[in-house]
Amino acid sequence: MRNKIALLWDESFLWGLMAYEALKKTCLPFELITSEEIKKGLLLNYNILFVPGGWASNKLKTIGIEGAEEIRSFVKKGGAYLGICGGAGLATLDGIGLLKVKRRPTKDRVPSFSGRIRLDITPHPIWSGFDQKDKDNLHEPIFYAWWPSQFVVDDGLNVLATYGMPLSDSFTSDLCIGDLNYCKVDWSELESSYGINLNPNRLYGEPAVIEGVLGSGRVILSLIHFDTPDHEGGYLVLRNLCQYFLGSDLTAASSSEEHKRFSVKFDPQIGPLIEDIYKSVAELIDLGIRNFLWFPRNSMLFQWRRGIRGLEYCNLYILVKKIYEFLTIKKIDLHSEEHLFIEISFDEEIKGIKEPLTLFCEKAKELIILERLALQKRNLTFEKSDDPKIQNIRLELFSSSKSYGGLYKELIDKIDKVLYKFLKLERGSL
Predict the structure, then answer these.
(1) How far, in Å, CA of 348 to CA of 418, rounded?
(2) Torsion angle in degrees (nearest 10) through CA of 330, 235, 215, 100
(3) Tell me: the pLDDT tens digits for 366-420?
(4) Rounded CA gap, 396 and 232, in Å?
(5) Please, what's the largest Cα pairwise distance for the chain?
(6) Rounded distance, CA 33 to CA 103, Å?
(7) How far apart are CA 416 and CA 411, in angstroms?
(8) Which helix (H) or strand (E) holds 388?
(9) What whole-number distance in Å separates Cα of residue 300 and Cα of residue 55?
(10) Computed from CA positions of residues 115, 118, 124, 129, in that sequence, does the dihedral angle turn out positive or negative?
(11) What is the reported pTM?
């Protein structure tokens, strides 16, 4: 096996792109891999399988029985598995069962926490550079969680970190925790109104990062997003994790990475088309901001009002924006002494996005305004509304599924396939 990481792309979308950018910025040696490639035994070419966030249930469907067995075999034979958030959920007994850990039922957990939170860490190599007492020269163990699940852990597993106290700029659902603490709100009253657990104190002491073994391999599951954009502490842990798994010098491994320069060949009409696609999605985002339905938390994630499908719109925007950036920069120099110019056409794939995206945006604009007005009168949940017009548009766009469905799922899958090809080109492996 080479000292490389396989980043599983399927059913990750925004979270996959977040992990991709984090691995690039930390100069870790990695390649993208799909479920189909895993089923064909390609994990044998790697040391680490990194499964990023996203709906664990959707990942499980894509991997299937055959892919799940390949992953288990990979770990048993000495491979390492790193799962973050949804990728952690995939490895539980509710998924492919790498470790004896379950996910706490939604009704018993805090389902909508997001933002910075302090961890209580157990001495371990992945925390090299962190110290809870000496804050002069080392990083504090403060990291980001983005709407995580919660673990129910078997006694045989090693808990590497538990949740401490959230920071004041974190959120529970659409409520800023620092603001609520300032006002000394009644959490039980708020929870009754929202119909979900909101009090972040429910997280205190719960497992956030766990480690276990399967055969000769190691598994680390994290509900903390060490791949959060531009978070140096998280990036440091990612490097520590890979150093721990590989037990070798990562500098030598990453310096041998072969980067290439490429150019994209496309029909002259494709340039204006992708610009129109990007503008259509950007208008949706501006509409939501203008109507106080969401706002940016960082370069990739939004905060949205309860009852709105904010993550879906965010997902769509960030993926389309990335494709737009690729297509408006025809040649990307990846600082290699030896350049390989590749010409590849994306005409048909991009043309295939335009029609469903136009339909989606037309319907979504109407839905956003209807939901904005409905929020003036009553609480909404993303699952149901007593307004039949809102409910019908939601079913068409997203289906009744809590995870991705409807026209949105068809559209995001098409966009995802185009983005995947561009990222493979950038890694020099298409």
Answers:
(1) 10
(2) -110
(3) 999 999 999 988 778 877 788 999 999 999 999 988 889 999 999 999 999 999 9
(4) 41
(5) 64
(6) 26
(7) 9
(8) helix 388-398
(9) 17
(10) positive
(11) 0.92
